[in-house]
Amino acid sequence: MRTFIAIEVNDQGVLNSIHKIQTELNIKAKPVELHNMHFTVQFLGEVSEEMIGKISAALNSIEFSAFSISFASIGVFPNPNSPRVIWIGTNDGVNELEKLAETIRTKLSHLGFSPDKKFKPHVTIFRIKNKIEGISSKLEKFSSYNFGRQIISEIKLKKSELTLNGPVYTDLLVVKGKQ
User: Fold this and answer.
1) Which value, in Å, is the radius of gyration of the alpha carbons in the chain?
2) In terms of DSSP bridges, do strands 30-31 and 146-152 run parallel, antiparallel, or are they unpaired?
3) What end-to-end distance do the CA atoms of the chain give, in Å?
4) What mean pLDDT is predicted for residues 65-74?
5) Is position 19 annotated as part of the catalytic site?
6) Residue 116 confidence (pLDDT) above 80
7) What does each C-alpha distance from 70 to 13, 41, 122 come to in angstroms?
């Protein structure tokens, strides 16, 4: 099954702020559904049931304390001239988030998983299929926007099923941090 490690965005105030931006931007792009908002810590791809057990054991061995992050800044991947993704980033708490991601990735490396790229904390809010002109000027007014704060208190192993209506994510494991 197709899997990944995620840290979900679940604070209603943050989600409301994201929805406001998705509504106000008014661009030809597919907004990510609010219930699917997350940081992808590591995409694992297709894994067997047996490997799910090993991944679960590795994740369950991780101990971390809950911490707060703030969501701020908006950007695009791979570049403003040809954006494929619009995302929001973090500032306060980013070091703790990067440290947790590194711990997760180290645990998974012992099982043969290696990340395809460095972890860059971001939450995808739009996916873009066709070229959009002048995206930078549309995003400019949100450059200093504060999306709110959230407590990061769990990591999840998720299954991803791709459907015609978009991805469907299912929790396979939830690891809770210390409060």
Assistant:
1) 16
2) unpaired
3) 32
4) 95
5) no
6) no
7) 11, 17, 11
φ, ψ of residue 41 to 5 degrees: the values are -75, -45
Which residues, other chains included, contact 54 with Cβ-Cβ below 8 Å and sequence gap of 6+? 111
Gap between the Cα atoms of 61 and 22, Å rounded? 37
- Other Cβ atoms less than 10 A from the Cβ of 33: the count is 12
Q: Residues 19, 35, 38, 110: which is the catalytic one? A: 38
With left for phi above 0 and alpha for psi between -120 and 50, is residue 93 left, alpha or beta?
Answer: left
Beta bridge partners of 65: 178
Of 19, 35, 110, 122, catalytic: 122
Q: Are 87 and 125 in contact (CB under 8 A)?
A: yes
Token reading at 42: 């590591």
Instruction: Give, for 30, the enclosing helix (H) or strand (E).
Output: strand 30-31
- pLDDT score of 74 more than 90: yes
Predicted local confidence at residue 80, as pLDDT: 85
Percent of the chain with pLDDT over 90: 78
Average of per-residue pLDDT across 34-48 = 96
Cβ neighbourhood burial of 125 (10 Å; 0-12, 13-18, 19+): buried
Token pair, residue 158, equals 């998720």
Return the residue matching tokens 């995302």.
87
How large is the angle between the packed helices 94-109 and 49-60, nearest 10 degrees? 130
